[in-house]
Specification:
There is one protein chain. The chain has a 4-stranded mixed sheet with strand order 7-8-9-10, sandwiched between helices. The protein starts with a helix and ends with a helix. The relative contact order is 0.07. It folds into 3 domains: 1-52, no CATH class; 64-165, no CATH class; 170-268, VSR Endonuclease (Endonuclease, Chain A). The chain contains 13 helices and 10 strands. Helix 5 (68-74) crosses helix 6 and helix 6 (110-120) packs antiparallel against helix 7 (123-135). Helices cover 47% and strands 17% of the residues. By secondary structure, the protein is of the alpha+beta class.
């Protein structure tokens, strides 16, 4: 027998009646789940689990589907910041107050989500989403190039060309973006003997390690970071450690710090 809760869970906790019926959920099963409080009717033809995300409930109650940056967030892709308004996909030209609407004939696939983000968002916001999708092997370069072949997609193609599939984190992606934008030559995941891979190397002389607090809260990660930094110091590879907050809120300060450090290294040579 089909489990109603499992079916709704496959839709991230919020499903429409047509999806339940297609999965084999009977009217009796649905009414029983409603009576037990296992499921709630949140809108006409829309059902949700008690712990369903309120934002997703609101979107599917319109009715609409998550799109662009909102869909990227739900899918677990890298997102700089939650959008001020949810982005939704609708099959018509109607607009809903409090939502950014994208016209879409069907619920966006992962590829659709990435393409929407590239066309809709500022460069860095779009890049981190696209890069994380490529890193996770959810989309390929060839798929992106095929979808972005139009004459109006030049900016989007340039962003796709800057994606590094070996990227290890959103912070690395952000740092690389600001450095390249400032005109520096940047290499990613550079092998350092005895250390592993350095996140970034600038102009072949200055290492950049990215430090996100949420990735480095346990003692093991703390000790590993210190070991890596000690290796670069011992090998004479000057390395700056930068944070998410610096790259998000004060990128000019980051670039000035890199430029000043490189100038100091040149003077000491």
């Amino acid at each position: 027998m089909v489990n109603v809760i499992e079916v709704i869970a496959r839709y991230d906790g919020v499903a429409r009646a047509k999806h339940l019926a297609a999965a084999g959920v009977s009217d009796f099963q649905l009414k029983s789940a409603l009576a037990r409080g296992d499921v709630a009717r949140v809108a006409r033809g829309v059902y949700a689990l008690p712990d369903a995300d309120a934002g997703l409930v609101a979107i599917r109650s319109l009715p609409a589907e998550p799109a662009c940056v909102t869909a990227a967030q739900i899918r677990g892709l890298w997102v700089l910041q939650p959008p001020p308004l949810p982005h939704v996909a609708v099959p018509h030209s109607r607009h809903y107050p409090g939502f950014v609407c994208h016209r879409s004939a069907a619920p966006p696939t992962l590829l659709d989500t990435v393409v929407q983000s590239l066309r809709c968002l500022p460069e860095l916001d779009a890049l981190v989403i696209a890069e994380s999708a490529v890193v996770a092997r959810g989309v390929t370069f060839s798929e992106l190039r095929h979808r972005l072949a139009g004459r109006n997609d030049a900016r989007e193609r340039r962003l796709v060309q800057s994606i590094v599939p070996q990227s290890q984190s959103i912070i690395e992606c952000m740092a690389r973006y600001w450095l390249r934008r400032a005109g520096f030559h940047v290499e990613s995941q550079v092998n350092i003997p005895g250390m592993g891979h350095l996140d970034l190397m600038v102009d072949g002389r200055l290492g950049i390690e990215t430090d996100g607090a949420k990735y480095h809260m346990d003692r093991t990660s703390f000790e590993e970071d210190r070991r890596r930094w000690n290796v670069t110091t011992r090998l004479g590879v000057p390395t700056l450690v930068v944070s998410y907050g610096l790259l998000l809120n004060r990128p000019d300060e980051f670039i000035a710090m890199v430029r000043e450090t490189l100038n100091t290294l040149s003077a000491a040579a």
